[in-house]
Amino acid sequence: MDAEHxxxxxxxxxxxTQIESSTRFATRCHPDANAICEELDAFFAQHLPxxxxxxxxxxxxxDLNRWTxxxxxxxxxxxxxxxxxxxxxxxxxxxxxxxxxxEDGKALYKRIISIAQGKVQPDRNKPIEWITYDVWxxxxxxxxxxxxxxxxxxxxxxxxxxxxxxxxxxGMRALLDQRYKESGAGLVVAAMAYAMDLHLTPAELxxxxxxxxSYSKLAIIVNDIESYEKEIRSFERSQAEGGKTLxxxxxxxxxxxxxxxxxxxxxxxxxxEWELEHLEMVAKREASxxxxxxxxxxxxxxxxxxxxGNEFW
Length: 313
What we know:
Distance between the termini: 57 Å
Helix content: 55-70%
Radius of gyration: 21 Å
Largest sheet: none
Oligomer: single chain
Shape: globular
């Protein structure tokens, strides 16, 4: 009988710690980031109803406004403030909804939607309400078309939070489709178009549908990896009310029987493979004989900065 042979003696055996951890996507911060964050931090510190000084300090330490500067480095300086206010309010609403019952959270979002639409006047004693109203009114006055596109994506995201379809997701494709709606991947891109003043033609948008699908998959999985623990805590609080966690990490672990840590590593490798495909698709589109306008090139670069900046932040 042949003797047992040891494993390959080379020093390139798989080690979990050797998985590439940095994105290939370019990262860049908005050139006016410090000034933007300083002004917005002062705005929220002054107007939000903090329970105590520590709560305000914790908010400032989280540096939420800087996220906008990392994902929209090419945003126009006269448009980025309202976008940053919107996302900071969205983060705060998400945290508030997690601390309430399912029905109360649903009612909260319904009222905020009506205020953003201008159908309901805000309570000027409630900062989240009047900030929401003022931001959307300002954006509509600047660019009604791009603001409406942005708003429709916001509606898709908020309504998906309470969509019964989320309880019927089986398999990665179905989960990706549902997570696209509720994770806000679409609204992040629509906000980019507004912030950068990018008006693409229907033909241009149709020509990059696969690239946008690639973006959404990457954005969703990176978000699910990074937010897994937070989502599990939220699920544990809402479980009694019929809540369900939808997360790619959990699905990977459940379907393969691997640990959560292993599921995360597998998904990181998948992300890196998809990054290569994404960059290849972008290069092919930019070199297309059909042409690629400067506006479309800026849009594609903006997608890359969103993905790179989000992971960096």
